[in-house]
Amino acid sequence: MDYQISSMLLLTCVILYLYRIWKNAYLFFEKLGIPYLKPNFLFGNMTDAILLRKSLVDVNLDLYRKLEPYKFAGIFNSMKATVMIRDPELLKHVLVKDFAYFSDRGINVDEKVDPLGYHLFTMKGDEWKNLRVKLTSTFSSGKMKMMFSLVKDCGENFSEVIDQISANETFDMKDLSSRYTTDTIASCAFGLESKTLNNPKSEFKSMVRKLLQFRIFMLVRVLWTNMPMKLIKFFNMTFFDSKAQKFLGDIVHKTIKYREQNNVTRNDFLDLLIALKNNTLMQKFQDTGDHEDIQTFLEQVGGKCLKSDIEMTNNLLAAQCILFFAAGYEAASTTLGFTLLELALNPHIQNKVRQEILDVLSTNDGQLTYDLMKQMTYTDMVISESLRKYPTSAILFRRTCQNYKIPGSDVIIPAETPILIPVYGIHLDEKYYDNPQEFRPERFTEQEKAKRSKYTYLPFGEGPRNCLAKRFGKMQVKLGLIYALKDFSYQVSPKMKFPLTFKRNFGLLTVDGIWLQRQKL
Ligand code: HEM
User: Fold this and answer.
1) Per-residue pLDDT averaged across 144-159, rounded?
2) Atom number of ligand 1 nearest to Cα 458
3) What is its main location (predicted)?
């Protein structure tokens, strides 16, 4: 009986405590004079996402639309008051001009509890700046040329695997694309021939999948910006799935050891990272393109040089390799899959891209080179349009590092406030793209691009914290597309259901399957 009474008392205290927090959170925007959407107790404006009734992507799209015509407004990520920035001009301030106020994403990771979760995506302040400068040089345009032949080999294999599918057989292009991007990143970041294209049941593939598999902890961490370190330590929460992280971390450690002991070079990211660790990057890989990228970055973060340095330990190298996988494989494979889906739905565009590919290849006996790939400009427009309609990172996060006065208003957002950037909402806004559901690559001619603000198109983010590997990601998708289209045409299978239902995960825009059929040409 006593036990029951104390349990009831404890529960009442917890509810009262949560109610008090919620009441304060509720008043947050009232006090600041910011318009906001009325939240529900505990779930805020995220009820449908938390109860897994809708994807986080769709929930945020609804919120973006409900908040028309405000330039910025308040929403509640569960109980956390978050400012959504809707206006492209304000986004220019948040992402670039006033970057010093918004330099991190507010994701807390304890380096001791989770050394492999301590990477560029989660790092903050000077440590992030130092590492970003170092890694910038590994993704320069010169380095992409170096990596081209490794990705091209995977592209050729992708085409061979597509060739093995029978005519009119329904297959999942999403699965095939993710096996292709797994192989490209395994080759470029880990120095491995993972061969998941040939072996869909490989352990490597299942571990990579596990890395980003939906976990309720991940959703909580995305919604609960600034989660207290004590809680992270108490639950021993790792950023990615701990088993997958350990599996991939062990591979990197072993490969580094092998290469250092046997003096092996393979011209991939791991070589570049090892050279960074040993301070031999400039001797080994001379590349003038690096300097320009680093200079631009330093100017944007407001300093010509950095205050301190960061030690490149083997754990730090392994953490970056794992991040390359997590950040790259899903984003690139989803983009490739959606692009092929749209091409199957729009045969006239499919024919036009294929014609460009064949015309360019015919100038060199069908042999693809890096420079020839660069000449395929219509293909670039098709990829850009695909990333507009399906930006895999549908929402982006920042956090105010200090109090910030919103330009053109009297509102001051306090330090430590989460900021949400509704990329998907902006990409589907009729104000910026007429008939936004129509797939139209011509939106990306130089002339059309010049008519819009740069901040209405954010598939790779913008400013110093944008995608580090934008060039590599685009190259993966482009080579995949070239090898998928050169010898085959695609139709949508009756198995594909419309409208698309996005996965209920922690904010990535993706689907469970992209069902197509192919014909050999
Ligand atoms: C089509 C493919 C890709 C897309 C659409 C994409 C998109 C993005 C986006 C939207 C962000 C967040 C930017 C922001 O907050 O402003 C990001 C960050 C990042 N991406 Fe990518 N990405 C792609 C491929 C890759 C690949 C292949 C890699 C690595 C090999 C990679 C590495 C990273 C890293 C390290 C960051 C964190 C940067 C930082 O915080 O400094 N991405 N990416």
Assistant:
1) 93
2) 10
3) endoplasmic reticulum
Number of domains in the chain: 1
Ligand 1 pocket test, candidate residues 460, 474, 508, 510, most atoms within 8 A of CB: 460
Alpha-carbon gap, residue 378 to 388, rounded angstroms: 15
Element (H, E) at 480: helix 470-485
104 burial (CB, 10 Å; 0-12 / 13-18 / 19+) is middle
Residue 128 CA: which ligand 1 atom is closest? 41
Range of the domain at 318: 2-520
DSSP label at 180? H
Residue 231: which H helix or E strand, with range? helix 229-234
Locate the ligand 1 atom nearest the alpha carbon of residue 320 and give its number: 35
Confidence (pLDDT) at 245: 84
Binding residues for heme: 467
3-class DSSP string for 115-143: HHHCCCCCCCHHHHHHHHHHHHHHHCHHH
User: In the predicted model, is pLDDT for residue 431 greater than 90?
Assistant: yes
Other CB atoms within 10 A of residue 297 CB: 16
Ligand 1 centroid vs 125 CA: distance in angstroms? Answer: 18
Residues with CB under 6 A from ligand 1: 120-121, 132, 323-324, 327-328, 331-332, 335, 392-393, 396, 459-461, 465-469, 472-473, 477
123: its two tokens: 């790092």
Q: What CATH number did the domain enclosing 261 receive?
A: 1.10.630.10
Q: Give 317-337 pLDDT, tens digit per residue.
A: 889 888 888 888 889 999 999
**pLDDT band, residue 154 (cuts 50/70/90):** very high
State mean pLDDT over 272-288: 69
ipTM value:
0.99
How far, rounded to the nearest angstrom, does the alpha carbon of residue 82 sit from its chain's CA centroid? 21
Tell me the pTM: 0.92
Separation of 479 CA from ligand 1 center, angstroms?
18
How far is residue 139's CA from residue 145's CA, in Å, rounded to a whole number?
10
- Mean predicted confidence (pLDDT) in 46-71: 94
Buried b (16+ CB within 10 A) or exposed e, 66-86: ebeeebbbbbbbbbbbbbbbb
Give the other-Cβ count within 10 Å of 451's Cβ: 9
Res. 51: pLDDT tops 80: yes
The mean per-residue pLDDT over the stretch 16-23 comes to 74
Share of the chain above pLDDT 70, in %: 93
Round to the nearest angstrom and report the end-to-end CA distance of the chain.
Answer: 78
